[in-house]
Description:
With about 80 residues, this protein is mainly beta. About 5% of the residues lie in helices and about 20% in strands. It comes from Elysia crispata. This is Integrase catalytic domain-containing protein.
Amino acid sequence: MAFVKQKQRPVPKKENPCPTTAGNFCCHRCQAAKKPGVGVHQPPGHLATAPLEVVAMDFTKLEVSADGKEDVLVLTDVFTK
């Protein structure tokens, strides 16, 4: 049986549901029953094929300027970014 180190704290022996666990290791059956970790995703393909086809928009607040303005609207063209 293959054993893999657990990433979290080891389960105390009295609470351990797996009889083949030794120290910080867990058997294949217990590993298979646990939820998988976050998977690796491929980067997304090209979102835009031409300028101004897709525009990203963000709204934020900054410190109040001398003329009393504090809101900023940022528009970014995804193609030319």
